[in-house]
Write a structure and sequence with these properties.
Radius of gyration: 21 Å
CATH architecture of the largest domain: 3-Layer(aba) Sandwich
Number of helices: 10
Strand order of the largest sheet: 2-1-3-6-4-5
Largest sheet: 6 strands, mixed
CATH class of the largest domain: Alpha Beta
Shape: globular
CATH topology of the largest domain: Aminopeptidase
Order of helices and strands: EHEHEEHHHEHEHHEEEHEEH
Length: about 375
């Protein structure tokens, strides 16, 4: 059971973190961290939220972990942004503690661990660890074996939300030797929310709406993780009315400043509210072969709970598909986005307030970008 969550806004003070053309990482991290904490406090009043920093100040890496350990936190979430010499790289990735499996993972760990060089007497504090030395990372055996599975579950949920709800490129769950994770004693993740070195992604990351989308995605993943701990069979459940919800506003929306070669990003509005007063029954329909159709996703589970589960008693003609190793349940088979939005509102009124729209063609899920191409060709 989760009672205390520590949210860590990476970098701060005289440690700016990654630098973009327009922004410093430390400021984005703090803004997203505070938005995430506010969502948890508003919707889960039984959970205590602790910040490693709530303003622009420098906190040593060992102190960040110590704050979590001293407060007996049940979960540690560290918020960061990424950067790379390859300006075309974009997307979100979530790290858990472990040995790096690629040079890219090692480079990210080195970038984040370099903060210790700004600490006084860091060699003594970290027992001679050199964040720039490949050899130093041999000390990072899987110290968190006891928490590795739960950390991985949370990381996977975050990545899925980042992809499905925000539209960010999913760069996956990764392992690397992060000092701040190595020192924690509970399930812990580092969320790299995007690349400041990518011009279009930087604009998204510094925007207030972009930060709200990301904070809400992490919140939803956290809620899903918490629900799974309390009810292991189902990882998606109804949420409070005050929680921001999302709906695809358009299939043509792209990243701010996106170049023609960028994959279009489907933007969902986290502040969209529910409207209908008395919803009729949700009745799916069939579409001609090859046509694009819109369905409403209602639940995600780690195991197949069956189409006739009591959880779906208020719905008819529920369908299931497998995606990213998860079982996902939908209703509807609408020919256009407007019809799907009406169906989604009906389903939300039945208690599935986490429902959102997904796009299919020939019974195969497709991306918003592919749907846009097919419906506007």
């Amino acid at each position: 059971m989760i009672r205390t969550v520590v949210i860590d806004a990476g970098h701060g003070g005289h440690d700016p973190g990654a630098l973009g053309k327009l922004a410093r990482e430390k400021n984005i991290n703090l803004s997203i961290a505070l938005k995430l904490g506010n969502l948890i406090q508003r919707n889960m009043k039984e959970i205590r939220v602790i910040y490693t920093r709530d303003r622009d100040r420098f906190i040593e890496l060992y102190r960040r972990a110590a704050i979590a350990n001293e407060n007996r936190a049940d979960l540690f979430i560290s918020i960061h942004c990424n950067a790379n010499n390859n300006k075309s790289l974009r997307g979100a990735e979530t790290y858990i503690m472990g040995l790096h499996k690629s040079e890219a993972n090692l480079s990210t760990a080195k970038l984040e661990n370099a903060s210790i060089l700004l600490e006084s007497d860091y060699q003594s504090t970290y027992n001679g660890f050199d964040p720039n030395s490949d050899e130093s990372y041999i000390i990072f055996s899987l110290n968190q074996n006891a928490n590795l599975e739960q950390s991985s579950d949370l990381a996977a949920a975050i990545q899925e939300q980042m992809e499905e709800r925000v539209g960010l490129n999913n760069r996956g769950v990764r392992q690397a030797g992060f000092i701040v994770l190595y020192k924690t004693t509970m399930p812990s993740v580092i969320v790299e929310t995007g690349y400041l070195s990518n011009a279009s992604e930087e604009k998204f990351l510094i925007s207030d709406k972009g930060q709200e989308y990301i904070a809400s995605a992490i919140y939803r993943a956290f809620r899903q993780f918490r629900d799974k701990l309390e009810n292991p069979s189902v990882t998606s459940s109804p949420v409070a009315k005050t929680e921001p919800s999302r709906v695809e506003s358009t299939l043509q929306s792209t990243r701010p400043g996106g170049s023609p070669g960028d994959t279009p990003m489907v933007v969902r509005d986290p502040l969209q509210t529910n409207a209908p007063a008395t919803p009729p029954a949700a009745v799916p329909r069939s579409n001609p072969a090859g046509a694009v159709s819109f369905r409403v996703q209602i639940a995600v589970t780690t195991n197949d709970i069956g189409l006739h589960s009591s959880k779906f008693a208020s719905l008819t003609k529920v369908k299931m598909y497998k995606h990213n190793g998860m079982y996902k349940y939908t209703v509807g088979d609408e020919p256009d986005l407007a019809s799907a939005e009406k169906l989604m509102e009906q389903v939300r009124r039945k208690g599935f307030r986490d429902a959102f729209i997904v796009v299919f063609r020939n019974d195969q899920r497709i991306t918003g970008a592919e749907a846009d191409r097919l419906t506007h060709r």
